[in-house]
Amino acid sequence: MSPTGYPWPIETARLDNGLRVVVSEDRTAPVAAVNIWYDVGSRHEPDGQTGFAHLFEHLMFEGSEHVAKTEHMRFIQGAGGSLNATTNPDRTNYFETVPSEHLELALWLEADRMGGLVPALTQETLDNQREVVKNERRQRYDNVPYGDAWLRLLPLLYPPGHPYHHATIGSMDDLNAADLPTFAAFHTRYYAPNNAVLSVVGDVVAADVFALAEKYFGGLPSRPDIPPAPDGTRPAPPTGPVREDVVGEVPAPRLYLAQRTHPFGTPEYDAVTVLATILGNGRGSRLYQRLADGARLAQPDFVSAYGVDLAHAPAPLIVSATARDGVSAADLEVGLVEVLDGLGDVGPEEIDRAKALLATAWWRQVSTVAGRADVLSRYATQFGDPARAGDRLPAWQAVTPEAVARAAAELSPEARVTLTYLPEEKNA
Amino acid sequence: MSLVAERPGPGAARPYRFPEVVRRDGVVAAHLPGQALAIAILLLDAGAGREPAGREGLAAVVAKALEEGTTRRDSAAYALALESLGAELFTSADWDSFRVGVQAPVDRLPEALALLAEATRTPRLDPADVARVRDDEATALRMDWADPGPRAEAALRADLFGRDQRHGRPLHGDPDSVAAISVDDVVGYHRTWFGQPGTLVVAGDLTSVDLDALGATVFAGAGGPVEGAGGPLPIEPRSSRRVVIVDRPGSVQSTLRLGHAAPHRAHPDHVPMTLAATVLGGAFTSRLNHLIREVRGYTYGIRGEFGQSKRFGRLLVSSGVQTAVTVPALVDTVGEVSRTAAEGVTEEELAVARSWRAGQLSVELQTPGAIAGALATLVVHDLPDDYHATLRAALLAADEATVSGAAARHLNPAGLTLVVEGDAAVIRDELVASGLGDVVDARP
Fold first, then answer.
1. How far is CA B23 from CA A235, B215, B379, in A?
2. Mean pLDDT throughout A179-208?
3. Distances in whole angstroms, Cα of residue B83 to Cα of each of A349, A357, B113, B214, B267
4. Is B1 a residue whose pLDDT tops 70?
5. Please, what are the domains in chain A?
6. Does Cytoplasm show up as a keyword for this record (chain A) (predicted)?
7. A101 and B12 in contact by Cβ < 8 A?
8. Looking at this predicted complex, what is its ipTM?
C-alpha cells in the first residue's frame, strides 16, 4: 500500500491579499484543472436567507465586470473545457478542466467573477436564475419519489439554529423575498481572496501558475472582517430517538436510519467511513448479505450506508433500505435495526474488504486532474494544508478493529433518526 | 480593486496523443504509465439487440445472475473474494454489446480478471437464484419506472420505431417484460451468447501486466464467434408531428422527450451531425439551453443529441419543465429545431462546438475507465487505431456549410414526436389547442 494517497508534487504560495494557491504538476496529458473553494456554504446562511449560497453559485456564471452574460460558458467550452460548480453546507466550489494552453483564460475568468461580480448583477439575471433554481428543486427533490429525504433528515438531525439544520437548496420563500442588494452584499462579504483556495493541477509549471495568480488575482483586496459561520461543532446531544413517517407517492416502503457521528477529518470519522463500507458498500456488505440476500427483506439494488463528509460539525451516517414486495416497513425496520445493533462482531476479513474498496475509491477519485484539484482545495480549506490530502488513504488503512468496534458501539438507538416512507393506500 | 480587463489568448498548444493501441489475439489494450488502477472489460456481442421479443431486460437479468455464485463458490464467497481485491464487477448492456468489467489496483488485476472470467463463463445459475434475481430486477425496474422519464422514453421509442421492433421497446425492458423472463430464458441466453470469445479491453499501467496471460484467462474454454447482427435498418422520415401524453397526475413538472429517427453510427455524416446537435442542444451554450433555461427560466436544463448505434439512430431532446409552461417550452423547442434545420449554424457557434468537442477528447480521456471506454468504441464499431486522432482532425476541419447541410438533412422538425409526461388533466387542453401536432395518449 502506498504510504501516501497523494504521490504527486504539491507547491503552495500565498498572495499578499491572502489567496492561497496550490499547484500540483502532472505532465501526463496536456490538460489543466482549475478549482476554487470558497469557504462559504449553506452553514453561513442566517434565518431568512436559506438557499443564498447555492443561488449565488448560479449567479457566478452569468457574467462579471469584463465578461458579458453567457460568455463565461462560451469561452470555456470554446476552449474545449468542462466546467461546473457545486454548493454544500460547508463550501462552494467552482472548477474547470481545459486544454493546458487555455489555463490563463480560466484564471482570468475566475478572477473576474471573484473581484468583479457585483457590477454585473442585474435584476433580470437574479429573477432568471431564481426560476432555474426553483426548477432544480422540482426536478431533484419534489418530482421524484423519496427525493426530499435529505431535506427532511437535516432538521431531524440538527437542532434549529445549527448551521446544518437547513438544506443547501434552501427555502423558495427566502429566495423569493430577497432583493438584489442583499445578494450583492453576500458576494461582497464572502467572495474575497482571503476566503478562497485556488488549486491548479496538471500540465503546468508551478512558478508560472504563481505568477499568473499574482497577475490576475493580486490586485483584489482582501477583506478583514469576514464573519464566520455559527459554531456547530458541539450541538446539544440528542435527547432520544426521533421518528418521521411520510405517506406519499412512493413505489415501496423505504427507511432511512441516520445519526450524527464525528466531523470529517477526525480519526473517529475515518472509523465511521470504514464501518459504513462494511455495512453498505458492495455485495459482500452486511446489509446486502443479511437484509437483501439473507433475510430477503430489502431490495438488493437499494441498500446503502454512507457518511456525508461534512467537516464543521458531527457528520451524518445514513443507512437506507427499501422493502421487497410484500415486506412491511415495520418488518424491514426490525431487520435493519438488527443489522445495526449487531455490528459488535465485525471480523478482520470484513475490515480488509472495506479497506480494499476504499483504496480503489480513493485512487479513482484522484485519477483525474480535476479530482486531484478538488481534493487539494478541500484539504487546504478545511485543514490548512493541501498536503494532508495524502493522509486520508493511510488513515483509512490504519483504522483498527477496536476503532471500528467503538464506532459501531456509538450507533446508539437513543441517538437515531428514523425516516420512513410509506406508499399511499390506493382505493381500487 | 484592479482586474485585468483584457481576455488572455491561448498559449502554445501541446498536442494530445491518444495512447498507442496494443492489439493481441482478442485483446485490445492501452498503456497508461503511473496509473494506480487498471481496468479490464470483456466485450460480448450479446447486447439488448439480441434479446427475444417480450423478454426485454433479459441481458440485465443474466448480468445480475452471474454474481449469484459460480460452479466453484457460492455468491457470498465470490463477493468477498472479489471485493477483498478492491474490485467490483460492473456490467452493462447497450444495443450493440454486453460488457462485464473490473477495476482494481494494477497488481490485483490478474486475480480480479480471473474472478470475472469465472462468473462470466461458469456461473452457477441455480434456478431458485435466477428466479429471485429476476423478481428483484422486476421490482427494481418498477422503482425506476416510478420516477419521471422511463415511461416517456418508452412512449417515444414505441412511436418512433414501433413496438414490433426490438429498438421500439425500452433498452432495459419494462417491469412486465422482465417479470415474464423464465429461468430457461436466462440459462438459454447465457448458453447462446456467453460462450463466444469476445474481446478483452485493458487500460492501465501495463509495465508489469502480461496481456497474453490475461487473454488466456478470459478466453479459456470459449467457443467460436457469433454471427453479426445485421446491417443498418431503413429510416422512413415522417411529415407530420404528433404529441403523446403520458399521464402523471399531480406532477409539478412536465418531462419532455422529443425525437425522430436518424441515421446509424457509421453514417458518413456522423461528425457534422454531432456538431449540429452540439449547437442545437449538446452543450450548456447551446441554442436550446440558452433559450429555454437562460432566457425563459422554464427548466433546470435541456439537452439535444443524436443517439446512434450500429443499426439505427435518433434525435433526442430531453428536459423537465414546470407544468404551467409546458406548451410554451415545447413551442420554443420545436422552434429552435426548425430554425437549426432551416438556417443551419453560424460560424461563431460552430467555432465553439468544434473546439469544445475536440478539446473534450483531451479533457475526458484521462482515466483508465475513459480510455477503456474509447477502446471499446473501436471494437464495437470496427474503427481503426488512429480513430481518435482522426476524429479530432475531422471535428476541427468541419466547416459551416458541411454542418449546416447535415442539420438540414438530418433534423426533421415537421416529423417530430413530442412526448409529454405530466399532469394530463392540467395540460391536455392547452396541448390540443397549441396545434403542435395530433394529440394522443400513450398506450399504458
1. 59, 11, 11
2. 95
3. 10, 6, 12, 19, 42
4. no
5. 11-217 (3.30.830.10), 242-423 (3.30.830.10)
6. no
7. yes
8. 0.91
**A154 with A165: CB under 8 angstroms?**
yes
Are B5 and A66 inside 8 Å of each other by CB? yes
Residue with cell 457534422: B272
CB neighbours of residue A185 within 10 Å:
11
B202/B304 same-domain check: no
Residue to mutate among B3, B126, B287, with most A CBs inside 10 A, is B3
Q: State how far Cα A144 lies from the chain centre.
A: 21
Expressed as residue numbers, the domain containing B58 is 21-219
Q: What is the CB neighbour count within 10 angstroms for residue A33? A: 31
- Torsions phi, psi for B108 (to 5 deg): -95, -5
| 3-state SS, residue B263 | coil
Region of residue B91 (phi > 0: left; psi between -120 and 50: alpha; otherwise: beta): beta
Query: Does the pLDDT value for residue B119 go beyond 70?
Result: yes
Q: What pLDDT digit, counting tens, does each position of A91-146 carry? A: 999 999 999 999 999 999 999 999 999 999 999 999 999 988 988 888 888 888 99
Domain assignment present for B33? yes
Q: What is the pLDDT of residue B76?
A: 96
Nearest to B443 by CA among B154, B143, B224: B154
For helices A401-409 and A267-280, the axis angle rounded to 10 degrees is 80
B227 domain residue, yes or no: no
Residues B207 and B318 in one domain: no
In this structure, is residue B382 part of a structural domain?
A: yes
User: Cα-flanking dihedrals φ and ψ of residue B361, to 5°?
Assistant: -60, -40
Q: Among all residues of chain A, which has the CA nearest to that of B296?
A: A128
| DSSP 8-state secondary structure symbol assigned to residue B98 | E
Q: Closest partner residue to B79 among A283, A325, A364, by Cβ?
A: A283
Same domain for B104 and B45, yes or no, is yes
B194-240 pLDDT, tens digit each? 999 999 999 999 999 999 999 999 999 899 999 999 999 999 899 99
- Other C-beta atoms closer than 10 Å to the C-beta of A284 total 25
Residues B161 and B264 occupy one common structural domain: no
CATH of the domain at B131: 3.30.830.10
Choose among B8, B105, B142: nearest Cβ to A251. Answer: B142
Predicted confidence (pLDDT) at residue A226 exceeds the cutoff of 90: yes
Nearest to B285 by CA among A61, A388, A207, A309: A61
| pLDDT number for residue A1 | 47
pLDDT at B200: 98
Task: Specify whether B257 is located in the same domain as B159.
Answer: no
Of B152, B185, B219, the last residue of a domain is B219
Q: Tell me the average pLDDT of chain A.
A: 95
Residue B441 has phi, psi (to 5 degrees) of -95, 140
Average pLDDT over residues A313-326: 96
Number of domains in chain B: 2
**Would B233 be classed as within a structural domain?**
no
Q: What does the mean pLDDT of chain B come to?
A: 96
B14 lies within 8 A of chain A by CB: yes
- Residue B410 sits at the vertex; the CA angle it makes with B409 and B412, to the nearest 5 degrees, is 100
